[in-house]
Amino acid sequence: MSNPSSPALLSLSGIGKTYIEPVLAEVSLEIRPGQILALTGENGAGKSTLSKIVCGLVQSTTGAMRLDGQPYQPRSRTEAEQLGIRMVMQELNLIPTLSIAENLFLNQLPQRFGWIDKPKLAALAQAQMAAVGLTDIDPWTPVGELGVGHQQMVEIARNLIGSCRLLVLDEPTAMLTSREVELLFAQIARLQSEGVAIIYISHRLEELKQVADRIAVLRDGKLVCDDMIDGYSSDALVQLMVGRAAEAELDLGHREIGAPLLRVRNLGRGNAVAPASFDLRAGEILGIAGLIGSGRTELLRLVFGADRADQGEVFIGDQAEAADIRSPKQAIAAGIAMITEDRKSQGLLLPQSIAVNTTLAKLGDVSKMGLLDGDAEATVAGDYIKRLRIRSRDGSQAAGELSGGNQQKVVIARWLYRDCPIMLFDEPTRGIDIGAKFDIYKLMADLSRQGKGLLIVSSDLRELMLICDRIAVMSAGKLVDTFERGQWSQEAILAAAFSGYMNSPSATAEQTA
């Protein structure tokens, strides 16, 4: 724990940032050695901008910072890291074609006689990977072959190398299993005991109360709370974040569950997905639960044609003949949309406008004589900005300038505009604040009332239990069970999720750890 009377490691005074409009205004904070400061707020509140200013990725428009009482104004991330200020960002800073070992020690590769000392590099990497629980993965595995959760752990491991005086963690547990979260918290406790200060950014309020001793809340770019966290309930923090109480229940409204829109029969691919069969009905929200690496995303990619199935068939509606889906283009033509888990690399053209991203899947409707109609694009974008409450200047703003939650809404807007009857969602609310989550939940309920079928993969079991009619569970690549609403329990779903790993030594160790 930090000493409240000790001098501040880092102090911020009147920090503001203006692009075209202000995104931060007059933020003043202090953090001491060994202190864990929870930083929270809705998407678009300014959390990431503030942390990027601290870590040298963005320059403030107004205000000043001091490190150890001396003026501090890093002009780059490298300059901040040289001073011991490190950041694990939501946007992972990894090179997918390089191995885990190479990513970990990219700027300090051990050498011998002018060549990379691979045995030493492997040993260093294994030691660093073990610190975050990545003991069962070959250090020479290309990072691009890892799931997002494991990539996140590699990024965390990379930032724990070398001198670290202040560590900024931006949504570090969004894609981690409970075991990985436990390992991360152990690392945080170790760093805290060594006097490292931590700024911990998250929307998971119970998690913040577990790990942090102080809370700072941003709303619309302004600091509305800076206090010890013990005195605040989760409900009180939500009200500070969004200006209103969070909804404990979600009214899905009256819906008619109809005939199957999608029938999957024995669809599989190698060791990733064992032959799986299920139906998705009109007006239904079907969730897929399971541990990271259980094959959930891989199953969605097979349905969407992003990966080629080794076996099995997909039927659309009541068609007797299987659909020919060997690519996403064919899936879209068949009426299937997919909102991917990695919106930045797979879901959006970040430099392009909201308008371009929204209309991308249906360009013919905003074109005249083969040329794009800018006014028509702007009208469509303006409609979805209003409907989905996307925080932006207007439809011309680049998608890359938006917060994570608003970027996700832009991806969803594209598929709403395309009007596909079958919608696949992979981690639809990862890294999104409570207010934006409920906006998306209500949107999903509305889509189901329109008769669309929604298939949703989520690592948040409470989320699935809140919004789904049925929950299918995958374990070790197999679809092992399906639960109806009213018949499931968190314990039963978790037991099913672990069931496929019962004979695996590594999985048994994870369960007992």
UniProtKB/TrEMBL annotation:
SMART domains: AAA
Keywords: ATP-binding, Cell membrane, Membrane, Nucleotide-binding, Repeat, Sugar transport, Translocase, Transport
Name of the protein in question: Sugar ABC transporter ATPase
Protein species of origin: Herbaspirillum hiltneri N3
SUPFAM superfamilies: P-loop containing nucleoside triphosphate hydrolases
PANTHER family attached to this UniProt entry: CARBOHYDRATE TRANSPORT ATP-BINDING PROTEIN MG119-RELATED, D-ALLOSE IMPORT ATP-BINDING PROTEIN ALSA-RELATED
PROSITE patterns per the UniProt record, alphabetical: ABC_TRANSPORTER_1, ABC_TRANSPORTER_2
Positions of the ABC transporter domain: 7-245, 257-501
Highest taxon listed in the record's lineage: Bacteria
Short name of one Pfam family: ABC_tran
